[in-house]
Amino acid sequence: MVPVSYYIVLSAVLFGLGVVAFIFKRNIITMFMAIELMLNAVNLAFVAFSRMLGQLQGQVYVFFVIVVAAAEAAVGLAIIILIARNRESLNVERVDLLKL
Amino acid sequence: MFILEHLWIIPVLPLLGAAVNGLFGKSWSQRAINTVALGTTGLSFAATLELVREFRHLSADQVPWLQSYFTWITAGNFRAGFDLQVDQLTIVMLLVVTGVGWLIHIYSTGYMAHEGGYCRFFACLNLFMFFMLILVLAANYGLLFVGWEGVGLCSYLLIGFYFLKQSAVVAGKKAFIVNRIGDFGFLLGLFLIFWNFGTLDFKPVFEKAAGMPADGFGQIGLLTGIALLLLAGACGKSAQVPLYVWLPDAMEGPTPVSALIHAATMVAAGVYVVARSHIIFVHAPTAMMAVAVMGAVTALFAATIALAQTDIKRVLAYSTISQLGYMFLACGVGAFAAGIFHLMTHAFFKALLFLAAGSVIHALGGIQEMPQMGGLRKKIPWTFWTMLMGALAIAGAPLFSGFFSKDLILYQSFVSPYGSRILWAVGIAAALLTSFYMFRLIFLTFFGQPRYDVHAVHVHESPRNMLAPLVVLAALAVGGGWVAAPVLRGGTDHFKEYLAPVFASSKAILAQAALAHPVENEATLEHSLMYVAIAVALAGFLVAWQLYLRRPEMPARLAETLHRAYTLLRNKYYVDEIYDYAFVRPLNWISTRVLWQTVDERGIDGSVNGLAHVARRVGEEVRLVQSGNTRSYAAWVVLGAVAFTSLLLWMTVR
After folding, report:
1. Which residue among A23, A97, A98 sits closest to B634, beta carbon to beta carbon?
2. Which end of chain A is least crowded, N or C, by CB within 10 Å?
């Protein structure tokens, strides 16, 4: 049986990758994917701990996170499309004014 | 009993007049304004006369007659009500204020006819009447203080009536500020009264004060403290040394104002308060002494200054101060009735003198300097004769009103247990000077050769509405003192008799004090003192006659020989200058340098500005964090998360 610590380490590595990608990537879509990555890393940790402790709350949280992530993806992608239309670019460096 | 039930009518009528004229009078004709102003004050006078009639039917135990209308302030135990009261003293004051005030209103319709601000003038004059009536009708110190401050306000408004003239504005402010100094003491006195008696109503205060043991001489007890503080207020309002300086400058206002406020009524408020609080004063021999000495000093001091003044109104102003000194002298020696008597006669003849002086100024088209007058006797006979009556009255010519009141005061200052020969001598000296400077004024103004430009100045007698009040006042100045006439034949003084119930409570203490100072041969003494008074009045007249009529070149020579004394008097003992150096400049310096430039600008403004500066500098630095770059925000978030997690870890590990 795979020990829990493996999952936790995998989760931490995924989360770290997400953070690094979020900070160092300039493409908005890539950053968006980095966020998804971080969310799923957390989901993995939730499930792992839930399994370890033999409780269901962690898994319920995962569903919540998936739902919220789906909603967020819808809103986020809409915003990204608008930015892309207005700026004709997906470079986040060029989105530093509050007004479009 | 209508007016007795509705005492409020008397003060409210002038207030109504002031409100109507002040709010709507601007576009009205002079006739309409006259109707309102004269109508309301005239009705007030009529109401007072009716009050006098009704008052006679009251039995002795109904006096003082008290009417409570509404409660004005309540705070804890403190209650100040709009309570009015009437006793004999109030009656006398009411008659003087409304009667003389009304005459002056009539006079003003002539005097002010060609001046701007007609409705403003009458609104202020009516408002003044209102406050003065509140002052004399008040049944507690709180309401009295309202009137007290109110007349001060109106005084300020009317002195500064010609508000485009710098000197008038300054004089108005001076009057107000000097009065405030006195009011400060007065207010402290009121606090002390409330603190100890738990009320400001006259009746309980006086009853409790009467039950207290009198302070010894030189002992500063409670009652002495109250009396001295009240005296400070009275001293400011009634222009006594050392707070008299505002009154001569108050002559910047129109002449009727000088007559009404600075001669007949407002300045009498101080005397009224002392007389009203007589029971407190007689329990405080030290305060009595202070009142008497202050009065005597003022009487003489002001009279000497009047000797060398050339402005006709200024002479009268100093004479007012001097006469007020007599009233204080009377109160200080326990002769309150005599003080009020002099207040009344003085109101008659000083209003007359001021109005006549106004008539002279009017006739000459604005000249106020006596050296530019002369020879007016034939040209303005009505003014001359009425003014002569006033001069005779104030100089103390036998059988004129001033003679009786002044004689009474001098006699009392001699025989009273609180009096002394020194006080009497000072009073007599002042009487001599009074007679001299009044006839100097008369001779310089009405006799000799005209010294004004005969071709340029068209001298004309004043219109009838100015002369009529003069004639009435002249009659009062002559006959106003006859109520005390029986004294000459050893009879009773009806005026004193009338006021006796008011001053009854302090009679016992005065009588007790009198036991220690028995007076021998009272009648002979009284007569001989009277002859001395007549003699000095005559002497003053003769000297003035000699100097200003027979040998008109003498005064200039005399001024030359007594150069130093003359300059000193001419410059009013440099009191204004001394005050300027001693108080005004240091205060200005402290206000400008310390309070304004250091405390306010550096301290208060500095701290507020400093805080704002710090906030701005910090903001300028921190602003850079908000770059607008999403990735930098993300980096901050990560940094924060790392920091927070490390903290948590560190804490759990520990």
Report:
1. A23
2. N
Contacts of B630 in chain A (CB under 8 A): 31, 92, 95-96
**Distance between CA atoms of residues B587 and B590, nearest Å:** 5
Q: What is the torsional sign of CA B433, B435, B438, B443?
A: negative
- The answer to whether the CB atoms of A96 and B634 lie below 8 A apart is no
Give which of A17, A20, A23, A30 to mutate to test B binding, by max B Cβ within 10 Å: A23
Give me B15's structure tokens: 């207030």
Q: What pTM was computed for the model?
A: 0.82
Nearest by Cα to B312 from B275, B270, B355, B342? B355
8 Å CB contact between B216 and B271: no
Residue with tokens 């008397």: B10
Q: Rounded distance, CA B121 to CA B128, Å?
A: 11
Q: How far A23 CA sits from the closest chain B CA (Å)?
A: 5
Chain B residues in contact with A23 (beta carbon < 8 A): 631, 634-635, 638
* Residues on chain A touching B638 (C-beta within 8 angstroms): 19, 23
Q: Does A99 touch chain B (CB under 8 A)?
A: no
Nearest to B248 by CA among B178, B329, B297, B341: B178
Q: What is the pLDDT of residues B211-245, one digit of tens each?
A: 888 888 778 888 999 999 999 999 999 999 889 99
**A88 in contact with B, Cβ within 8 Å:** no
- With b meaning 16 or more CB within 10 Å and e meaning fewer, what string describes B37-66? bbebbbbbbebbeebeebbeeeeeeebbbb
Answer yes or no: are the C-beta atoms of B480 and B405 closer than 8 Å. Answer: no
Cβ neighbours around B246 below 10 Å, total: 25
Token readout for B193 is: 């009264």
B347: confidence class by pLDDT, cuts 50, 70, 90: very high
Three-class SS of residue B241? coil
pLDDT at B125 over 90: yes
- Note the pLDDT tens digit of each residue in B176-205: 999 999 999 999 999 999 999 989 999 999
What is the pLDDT, as a whole number, of residue A98? 64
For residue A40, give how far its alpha carbon lies from the nearest alpha carbon of chain B (Å).
17
Cβ pairs bridging A and B (under 8 Å): 23
Are residues A23 and B627, on separate chains, in Cβ contact within 8 Å?
A: no
Identity of the residue in A23, A31, A93 whose CB atom sits nearest the CB atom of B638: A23
Domains of chain A by range and CATH? 4-94 (1.10.287.3510)
Burial of A23 (0-12, 13-18, 19+ CB in 10 A): middle
Q: Could you report the per-residue pLDDT of B70-96, keeping only the tens digit for each?
A: 998 888 888 888 999 999 999 999 999
pLDDT tens column, A24-78:
888 989 999 999 999 999 999 999 999 999 999 999 999 999 999 999 999 999 9
Closest to B538 measured CA to CA, from B401, B396, B389, B390? B396
DSSP state of B261: I
Interface touch A19/B628, C-beta < 8 Å: no
> What is the DSSP code string of B528-594?
HHHHHHHHHHHHHHHHHHIIIII-TTHHHHHHHHTHHHHHHHHTGGGHHHHHIIIIIHHHHHIIIII
Rounded Cα distance, B329 and B300, in Å: 11
Of A19, A24, A95, the CB nearest to B630: A95
Residues 6+ positions from B157 with CB-CB distance below 8 Å: B124, B127, B172
| Average pLDDT for B155-176 | 92
Q: Residues in chain B whose beta carbon is closer than 8 A to a beta carbon of chain A?
A: 627-631, 634-635, 638
| Interface contact flag, B634 A95, Cβ < 8 Å | no
